[in-house]
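> forwarded from #structure-qc
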């Protein structure tokens, strides 16, 4: 399939927005589970967003990027939805050594 760069960018942006919306709706899915299964989490997405903003010279703080992904301040999300990681989850994360 051949598509122009503008259309590709628009499609990629739409997919990103859908992914973020999906993750916002699945507060039952913990970041540690995402990291253990996929090697990335909501924080990774927010870090990547900030890195891209920095590369473009756009003003975005870490708090701004996290709120863009979480849909609320990160501390609010943690207090509302983050569960304590189990010993098994922590062991899996340590074994994977994904850099998180």
């Amino acid at each position: 399939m051949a598509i122009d760069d503008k259309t590709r960018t628009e499609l990629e942006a739409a997919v990103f927005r859908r992914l973020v919306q999906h993750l916002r709706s699945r507060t039952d899915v913990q970041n540690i589970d995402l990291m253990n299964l996929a090697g990335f989490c909501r924080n990774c997405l927010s870090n990547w967003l900030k890195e891209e903003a920095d590369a473009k010279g756009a003003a975005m703080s870490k708090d701004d990027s996290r709120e863009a992904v979480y849909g609320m301040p990160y501390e609010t999300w943690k207090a509302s939805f983050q569960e304590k990681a189990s010993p098994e989850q922590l062991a899996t994360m340590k074994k994977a050594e994904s850099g998180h």
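QC bot note: The domain at 9-80 is CATH 1.10.3340.10 (SMc04008-like fold). The chain has a mean pLDDT of 94.
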